Amino acid sequence: MKFETKVIHGGTQEDPYTGAITTPIYQTSTYHQQTLGGHAKYEYTRGENPTRFALESVMAAIENGTDGFAFSSGMAAIHATMSLLKAGDHIVMANDVYGGTFRLVNRILTDLGITFTAVDTADSVALQEAIKPTTKMVYLESPSNPLMHVTDIAEAARIAHDSGAIAVVDNTFASPYNQNPLDLGADVVIHSGTKYLGGHADVLSGFVIVKDAELAERIKFIQMSIGAVLSPQDSYLVQRSIKTLALRVQRHNENAMALAEFLNNHPKVAKVYFPGLPGTPDYEIARRQMRGFGGMMSIELQPGLDVKQFVENLDVFLLAESLGGVESLIEVPAIMTHASIPRDIRLANGIKDELVRISVGIEDIDDLIADMTKGLDAL
């Protein structure tokens, strides 16, 4: 099936008990066992739930994996994946990852004896040089948050596998509509389902998708043991939203491309970070491994212009964290999403104080450009 069909018919959709087209919300914590020790598929909702299973099977289908696992947030999914590691293991990690990911690694995993090296994963030479004998995981975002760097996933996976490590890709910014890292050699795909998959700024969720049976068993055990599973209600909401994922992301792609071209030619904008702009370092790789360039971008205003004044003079673009919803959002990473990264590290990795990150929604593009014009004219 093509992607647009998979989001509607992929995985488990029809309820096996009633034939309901929409999987019901099985709002239960436990299940009746007919005989002692004789439970069938369902025993306890932390481990098994029909509503969550239906969502997980759809996620596996649209990421071209074999097994999907739903968590209570994107960070819970990342934590579960990094729980594959043990004391003494080493992570090579992208140097401009989401602030919450950096915080988890830098302030929690290091206390457990796990070490890391942060590099520009788009630089294959730097990535190769960061590998150590103890490296067990190469972790990257592509496009990255917030600088939109695009990593050659196939090359990164090759480097990881040559060293005996696994390649993990956070695919949140691209979404499964635009990119499938498992097809490019990645071992694990992660999503903050709160973003494009949920799509309506009304539910938290996270996903891990794999296609290796051994990895699937390990992730399933970690999911059940740690217990940060997605609730039946939230599983229903995300599955409902995925049915329109193709339509929404197509519009995100179109709007972002048009807005990036507008901002790239505006005299008050110094730089636009968007992989869809020809001539940028990430464009050729993005064009090769992505089907669309996504709805995310970042910009830098010309020196001396007031970022605070700009973001507070917008009406359609709402000043808020998160991304991937139908509404357009804008934020300043240094103060908001990446504030947990020490300033010296943040600046060294190119995340400047004046950087502005934009999540382009699905509103009319003329209204989005008019709102940006209003904000820039106010400077």
Automatic annotation (TrEMBL):
Pathway: Amino-acid biosynthesis; L-methionine biosynthesis via de novo pathway; L-homocysteine from L-cystathionine: step 1/1. One of its GO terms (molecular function) is cystathionine gamma-lyase activity. Its cofactor is pyridoxal 5'-phosphate. It is an enzyme of class 4 (lyase). GO terms for cellular component: cytoplasm. The modification N6-(pyridoxal phosphate)lysine is found at K195. Keywords: Pyridoxal phosphate, Transferase. The keyword Transferase applies. GO terms for biological process: cysteine biosynthetic process via cystathionine; transsulfuration. Its EC number is 4.4.1.13. It catalyses: L,L-cystathionine + H2O = L-homocysteine + pyruvate + NH4(+); an S-substituted L-cysteine + H2O = a thiol + pyruvate + NH4(+). The enzymatic degradation of amino acids in cheese is believed to generate aroma compounds and therefore to be essential for flavor development. Cystathionine beta-lyase (CBL) can convert cystathionine to homocysteine but is also able to catalyze an alpha, gamma elimination. With methionine as a substrate, it produces volatile sulfur compounds which are important for flavor formation in Gouda cheese. Belongs to the trans-sulfuration enzymes family. This is Cystathionine beta-lyase.
